[in-house]
Amino acid sequence: MRRAVVILLSGLVVMAAGAFACTNISTLNISDSSGRPGSTVKITGTSFGNSSPAGRRTTTPLPVRIRWNGAEGPTLAETLPDSAGNISASVTIPPQAAPGHYVIFAVQQDADGYHMYGTPARIAYEVLTPDGRPAPPPAVASAEPSGPRAGASGLPLALVVLGVLGGALFVAGFVASVRLLSPRAGVTPSRVPSE
Fold first, then answer.
1. Distance between CA atoms of residues 19 and 172, nearest Å
2. How many CA atoms lie within 13 A of 17 on its CB side?
3. Exposure string for 63-94, b = 16+ CB within 10 A, e = fewer
4. Each residue's pLDDT tens digit in the chain (195 positions)?
5. Is residue 97 exposed (0-12), middle (13-18) or buried (19+ Cβ within 10 Å)?
6. Of 30, 87, 166, 194, whose CB neighbour count within 10 A is largest?
């Protein structure tokens, strides 16, 4: 009985992982990954659907809003996905955008404000200087480390410890499941004499 429960639970975990892995995530492509303020780029995307996390399906496609630098940022364009869930729109990069790195979002929400499955989609965009060069890196206050522990960080050590702990837990779980599922050697059932 115990073996059947373990096998059943293992099967459920594998099926749940497979179902999660098969979820479509909306993706974006952009004609140019950088440009000057005010330039126009073409955004295309796939896997924009009609199911919300609340389990509601819509009969008509919901609009996809292309937004600047945030899921609630200014709307650059609005488009409807085709029957296959694909979108295409031309957008103008805000003329007032300072040189630097930004993110363009494609947001699709139902009437109650729930994001549709796999959204928002994101893609990076770099605004260049007016003469077409990348933005200069931000100024660093001090290039030289200072203090008694200059350059030392506890983060790598913590990650190593967590990695070893996780590996040990995985091995222990594997060994426990193998021992549970394998027949016990040297154990023979005893017979109770009948009267």
1. 27
2. 6
3. ebbbbbbeeebeebbebebeeebebebebebb
4. 677 777 777 766 666 655 555 567 899 999 999 999 999 999 999 998 865 555 566 667 789 999 999 999 999 999 999 888 899 999 999 999 999 999 999 999 887 888 887 889 999 999 999 889 998 887 776 555 555 555 556 667 778 888 888 889 988 888 888 888 776 655 566 666 766
5. middle
6. 87
User: Position of tokens 């222990």?
Assistant: 172
Domain definitions of the chain by residue range: 23-127
Burial of 116 per CB tally in 10 Å (0-12, 13-18, 19+):
buried
Query: Does residue 137 have a cis peptide bond before it, meaning omega lies within 30 degrees of 0?
Result: no
Q: Dump the DSSP string for 136-152.
A: PPPPPS-SS--STTTT-
Architecture of domain 23-127: Sandwich (2.60)
Residue type, 89: A
> d(Cα 121, Cα 45) in Å, to the nearest integer?
8
